[in-house]
Design brief:
alpha+beta
């Protein structure tokens, strides 16, 4: 009877020891896999940083173009101080439209008189027509030093384009960086949780 009791104790000890060994091995395997995964994650992060750098450069180009156009608009508004009446003569259609199913883009052509002389201004920003239509009267602010230089408040596309460039530039510069950092932290948190479960 005593022999069986001692044997049972020995079996329990053996089972506990094997369980501890298995747990130790499992922990070591987990740490090995975690370290390998984190090492790969860091290497992938370096690659992402290089890719993000390209996005940042592209975003900066859009951002700078947008800011330059905003600066030109502000300068036009500052320089063009003489108010005259003008009208929308016609619309120029974008020549880049090659697909018949695509919606065409338009740029308005304005006409106005200054000091008894008629002037024509061809819009250089293509968009939809918006609220503009042929024959519509519009306010035209003329630069007295350069009568061909004007500012038309009703020409909304001229304002929307630089704002769109700035937004695109910010998204291209900041978006990929934030996403990469988020993914990097997710992998680290995953293995931290796995390690804490194994303890």
């Amino acid at each position: 009877m005593d022999y069986n009791f001692n044997n049972d104790n020995r079996d329990d000890f053996t089972l506990k020891r094997e369980a501890m060994v298995d747990k130790f091995r499992e922990k070591n395997d987990l740490e090995t896999r975690a370290n390998e995964s984190l090492k790969a994650n860091k290497a992938f992060m370096k690659l992402r940083i290089r890719i993000c750098f390209l996005f940042i450069l592209g975003g900066l180009v859009f951002f700078i173009l947008g800011m330059v156009q905003v600066g030109l608009l502000i300068k036009s508004k500052h320089d063009c101080t003489v108010l005259v009446k003008g009208k929308v003569d016609s619309f120029a259609v974008s020549s880049s439209i090659s697909d018949e199913d695509s919606s065409p883009s338009y740029a308005p052509v304005f006409s106005y008189e200054y000091n008894g002389e008629k002037h024509i201004y061809d819009g250089d920003t293509y968009s939809d027509k918006g609220k503009l239509y042929v024959g519509q009267e519009v306010d035209v602010y003329v630069d007295p030093d350069k009568p061909d230089h004007i500012y038309v408040p009703a020409y909304k596309a001229k304002k929307r384009t630089p704002i769109a460039f700035i937004i695109i530039g910010l998204l291209m510069s900041v978006g990929p960086v934030l996403y990469s950092l988020h993914e990097y932290r997710c992998v680290e948190r995953y293995w931290e949780n796995e390690k804490s479960k194994a303890l």
